[in-house]
Amino acid sequence: MQIAPPKQLTNYIKHYIFLDNPENDIKKLRLFADGNTGLIISGDIHMHDDVLGKNLPLSFFYGQPTHYKDLVTQGTFSLLAVVFQPYFFNLLFGVSAKEIKNEIISAADILKGQLQPFQESLYNKNDPFMIIAALNDFFIKLISKSNPVDYWLINTQQYMLKNKGSASLKDLENFTGYSERHIERTFENQIGISPKKYNTIIRLHHFLSLIKDNGQKTMTGLSYEAGYSDQSHLIKEFKNSIGLTPGQYMKTKNKLAVNFIEL
């Protein structure tokens, strides 16, 4: 279940995702890049990183992912994913997004016990809409204490999304009035990746939206429509980002979110 934030938070939070697993089983989940950072909140999840083989905290922030990450859960759980706008973590905590790229950080280390009421609400199976309403208030208070938002960066991000990942650095320079070096440095510090990498992610997700809405068209036609030079370029980028071919992805039944699937 995906839920939008209120208008005053849309520059900071993209959406909330609520997941509830009532089955006492083992699930393998894959998280891949969508250009955003986020926060996972749970009161009862048993999750570990399948590659590193280490248990994850009940609640954690994840930095800008540049490759897919496999997570394994065991048993029943309820969780809320707060999907941030890509610059929000840097804005809130003043940490360079480049330094936490691909990292998972315990929320308790940053927010101490501030998330405990939300964890308890999830554990007690409270109404998720009520939990999200309380989280909206929580984030509005946090934002009031944070650095001011950099509107030129927001406008640039929206410009890149509108152009579906095809805007070159020269295009961004003309759009913003800033030098290419300044744009690259700002992206790496506040978003965690270069404009080129961000474009790559945007283009990939544009292709995912095309195959969702135009399932009858050929893969070759859709790859050109999404801006890929040829189908082999698409497949290479797809496998690097998601770890699957487009065909394997399409056969994946349980797509929990735009960047979160059950294997």
UniProtKB/TrEMBL annotation:
<dbReference type="GO" id="GO:0043565">
    <property type="term" value="F:sequence-specific DNA binding"/>
</dbReference>
<dbReference type="InterPro" id="IPR046532">
    <property type="entry name" value="DUF6597"/>
</dbReference>
<dbReference type="GO" id="GO:0003700">
    <property type="term" value="F:DNA-binding transcription factor activity"/>
</dbReference>
<keyword id="KW-0238">DNA-binding</keyword>
<dbReference type="InterPro" id="IPR009057">
    <property type="entry name" value="Homeodomain-like_sf"/>
</dbReference>
<dbReference type="Pfam" id="PF20240">
    <property type="entry name" value="DUF6597"/>
</dbReference>
<keyword id="KW-0805">Transcription regulation</keyword>
<dbReference type="InterPro" id="IPR050204">
    <property type="entry name" value="AraC_XylS_family_regulators"/>
</dbReference>
<dbReference type="Pfam" id="PF12833">
    <property type="entry name" value="HTH_18"/>
</dbReference>
<dbReference type="InterPro" id="IPR018060">
    <property type="entry name" value="HTH_AraC"/>
</dbReference>
<keyword id="KW-0804">Transcription</keyword>
<protein>
    <recommendedName>
        <fullName>HTH araC/xylS-type domain-containing protein</fullName>
    </recommendedName>
</protein>
<feature type="domain" description="HTH araC/xylS-type">
    <location>
        <begin position="151"/>
        <end position="252"/>
    </location>
</feature>
